TrEMBL record:
This is PilZ domain-containing protein. GO terms for molecular function: cyclic-di-GMP binding. The lineage of its organism: Bacteria, Pseudomonadati, Pseudomonadota, Gammaproteobacteria, Alteromonadales. Residues 150-232, 492-571 form the PilZ domain. Signal peptide: none annotated. InterPro entries: PilZ_domain.
Length: 809
């Protein structure tokens, strides 16, 4: 509301119910008799503005000091806290329907962080129990991955009076909530307690009144599947037991549901949950920066078999390729290391490589291995951390079950052949490839300047470097190679890319850098350089392809102009687009002809599955066992807000106690992620990210004391770079350990693409048949998700880095 009308608030409230009445002008003159005519006219215009119909959804999650839940009105689903609901309903009664005035009133409640902040700026007293810091609280709902509850038949929302009779002949009145041919959900008061697996006979008293032929004297037998308690009620989920046949009742119920499901509406809760879950999964799975390696168990031996690739984790493959392009990552997962991982469940591994006589030699050692050999630890860390190839990895072990490879739709087969086809389990040939899979070894690169600098403080002796030879990877061919599989999701690129490794020479500002191509397309190329590129995005460079030139005399392949579109953190991986000064340039003509002539030989990243469906199967198993914390940022116009947090499989994640501290059920509070900077780093970072940009990575230290009564005093949070020296980092860690808990997180953030509507099409169409507005709301909400992040617990590595070994070993 405009500030000029605040003094007339009481008059406006009195006039809202009569704004559309014929005698409104008389009422206005009576109530506002002491107000001048010009002001009365303005009040009238303001009321007419507020009385205009409104169709805008209100979402207060993260914007108010209170827990928000879904609230439906007029076909729209809002997300409101109890105070907002009270204001909403009061304003609806005043206006008679959902209007601009209702929308504005609900968005200006006393517990709105923006309103409280403005009051503080104006020197006003804010509502007791709120805090100036409350504007920085970020309660965020939890989304459950793999929430694909499949139904065997459609359920119809239908309320009818029933009577429950248990084995002791105790009668209880209840009412149905939804009904299917073989199942029921009913609501009953808490007076009579019910248990799962209890047998009941149900008398459909309401149906008996309306349909006399359905008066079944013996009742219909059911078994309780689940019992949920909500406020003063019990919600019972039941299924038919068919202990005696009721053919007339069965036939009637089937006809009744088919004839009335559009009138009473099909219950679609499970399908809405499935679409939401899949929507958030398909934002995370293509972007996660960890590499899942699937481990097979044969007797006592653990064998790495498959890896799931995406755009976020492909740097692993660039790093572990030798001088000939051969992938050498298998030995990182050698038997001894996997045994250590099986015992510890998570370990840290340090790695580097060196070039000798044109050959690449890889080295790796776990923190535990180095801890047992202090002298070698100094040599390994001191020498390795000074190499450009230095890497610090976190390895986690996840238990998996091959049955998790199957993720059917939430819809029953009876809806048609297409649904039945999509609900078909993986074929036996594919399951035979997966049946012995037991674990996922999740590899995450957590390297950055801060841990590199810390390890460079170890002094090494060149004469002792031969002693680290036991950590070198053998150069013999691996006995069991890891096959790479890419989960197929919506292709957001304008053209297919093909794998091709060939020498390339890059010229920038007179400096020549050698490298190799990683993949090519008609208009672009991705290259890996031997030394870091010192330019920036949008710079133009010249490329020459000496090996490819040997196969083409028609096109000169030197000095071709490309524009830099993306650069990795180290400056060694470049994404380039050909600059077209003319309608068609040499690079475009050459690569178009090369791809057409060799399409059967070149591997496309979008069509390279040896076993159809294996990429999706691996993706399903990984999605069912997420151990790091995905989080999502949404965008409403220009405003960025926290949107959701992915449910994780491993409840032992170090950050969970802090994020769940004083959080409402079904939410986590992401305040610790935002408390270290103002404006919040994640919000500002998202504004700078572009589609397909590499993930931004920051390291966060959290001191958490759950015994503090004031929520905001429970946390002290800083980014690692906000300390000016290691001594202060160690001091922060020591104080946190002494007064509660120390948590270190690696925070990754990247921008989402557009939703993969093809993945959701079947279930979205089903919802659209019965509730088009709900399908539209779901799609609009998925489009509003702007960023996806990942929280990796690196507490153990940070403690080792700053000399707190006794806290780790």
């Amino acid at each position: 509301m405009a500030q000029e009308f605040e003094q007339y608030q009481d008059i406006l409230e009195q006039l809202k119910p009569v704004i559309n009445e014929p005698d409104f002008n008389n009422t206005l003159s009576s109530i506002a008799a002491n107000v001048s005519k010009p002001k009365r006219f303005l009040i009238k215009m303001e009321l007419r503005r507020q009385a205009r119909p409104c169709e805008q959804i209100i979402d207060l999650r993260g914007l108010v000091d209170g827990r928000c839940g879904s609230y439906e009105y007029g076909g729209l689903t809002h997300f409101l806290d109890p105070i907002a609901i009270e204001v909403f309903e009061r304003q609806i009664r005043a206006f008679g329907h959902y209007t601009v005035g209702v929308y504005e009133a609900v968005n200006n409640t006393e517990n709105n962080f923006r309103v409280m902040h403005q009051k503080e700026l104006n020197g006003e007293q804010i509502t007791p129990g709120s805090s100036a810091e409350a504007q920085h609280a970020y309660p965020t709902r939890i989304i459950n991955f793999r929430a694909y509850r499949q139904r065997q038949e459609e359920r119809m929302n239908f309320v009818v009076n029933i009577e429950l009779v248990n084995q002791f002949d105790e009668h209880t009145a209840a009412s149905t909530m939804d009904v299917s041919v073989n199942g029921l959900k009913v609501k009953v008061r808490r007076g009579q307690l019910f248990q799962p697996h209890e047998s009941l006979h149900i008398y459909f008293r309401g149906l008996s009144i309306d349909h006399n032929s359905m008066n079944i004297a013996e009742g219909v037998p059911y078994e309780i599947i689940a019992v949920d308690k909500v406020d003063e009620d019990q919600i019972l989920t039941l299924c038919r037991t068919h202990t005696h046949e009721t053919p007339k009742f069965d036939a009637f119920l089937e006809r009744f549901i088919q004839g009335n499901k559009r009138r009473y509406k099909v219950n679609m809760e499970n399908t809405i949950e499935a679409i939401t879950s899949k929507g958030y999964e398909q934002y995370y799975i293509p972007q996660f920066n960890s590499l899942p390696v699937f481990i097979e168990q044969q007797q006592e031996k653990l064998i790495p078999r498959f890896a799931l690739t995406n755009d976020g984790n492909r740097e692993h493959f660039h790093y572990w390729c030798d001088e000939s392009g051969q992938l050498r990552i298998e030995h990182l997962f050698h038997q001894q290391r996997l045994n250590e991982l099986l015992e510890q469940r998570e370990i840290y591994v340090y790695a580097f490589n060196r070039i000798n006589k044109g050959k690449t030699f890889f080295y790796s050692a776990s923190a535990h291995q180095l801890h047992q050999q202090e002298l070698l630890k100094t040599q390994f860390l001191g020498y390795g951390s000074r190499k450009a190839s230095w890497r610090v990895y976190k390895l986690q072990l996840l238990d998996i079950n091959p049955e998790q490879s199957f993720a059917p739709l939430s819809l029953p087969d009876e809806l048609g052949p297409q649904v039945k086809k999509l609900n078909t389990p993986p074929p036996a040939r594919l399951m035979a490839k997966l049946i012995r899979l037991k674990y996922i070894a999740l590899l995450t690169d957590i390297t950055e300047d801060w841990n590199t600098i810390a390890y460079q403080k170890y002094k090494f002796n060149k004469s002792m470097l031969p002693n680290i030879k036991p950590f070198a990877h053998p150069r013999v061919e691996a006995e069991n190679s890891i096959s790479m599989h890419r989960f197929k999701y919506q292709n957001l690129r304008t053209e297919d890319r093909f794998q091709l490794r060939s020498k390339v020479e890059l010229d920038f500002d007179g400096e020549e850098i050698l490298g190799v191509t990683e993949d090519i397309s008609v208009h672009g190329v991705k290259i890996e350089l031997d030394t870091p590129f010192k330019g920036r995005i949008f710079d133009e460079v010249e490329l020459s392809f000496p090996q490819l030139q040997k196969i083409s005399q028609k096109y000169p392949l030197h000095g071709l102009v490309y524009e830099v579109k993306n650069i990795n953190h180290e400056g060694t991986i470049l994404h380039l687009n050909a600059v077209q000064y003319e309608e068609e340039n040499t690079a475009q003509l050459f690569f178009d002809q090369l791809i057409k002539a060799n399409r059967d030989k070149l591997k496309s990243y979008m069509n390279n599955e040896e076993h159809p469906g294996i990429g999706e199967a691996l993706r399903n198993m990984y999605a069912a066992n997420i151990v790091n914390i995905p989080f999502y940022l949404g965008k409403d116009g220009v405003k960025i807000h926290t949107d959701a947090v992915g449910h994780i499989h491993d409840q032992a994640h170090a950050a969970l106690p802090a994020l769940s501290h004083q959080a409402e059920y079904g939410t986590l509070n992401l305040y610790p992620l935002f408390a270290a900077s103002n404006p919040p780093f994640l919000f500002e970072a998202l504004k700078t990210l572009k589609n397909n940009s590499p993930a931004i990575m920051r390291e966060l230290f959290i001191a958490f004391n759950p015994d503090e009564t004031d929520y905001f005093q429970s946390f002290k949070v800083k980014f690692v770079e906000q300390f000016d020296q290691d001594a202060k980092r160690r001091e922060f860690i020591a104080q946190a350990l002494g007064g509660g808990q120390f948590i270190a997180l690696k925070v990754f953030l990247t921008k989402t693409g557009r939703p993969d509507t093809e993945l959701l099409r079947t279930e979205m169409n089903y919802i659209g048949v019965y509730a088009m507005h709900k399908a539209k709301q779901l799609e609009e909400h998925l489009w509003s998700v702007a960023g996806v992040g990942n929280l990796i617990d690196i507490t153990g590595e940070v403690l080792l880095r700053y000399g707190f070994e006794e806290r780790v070993f």
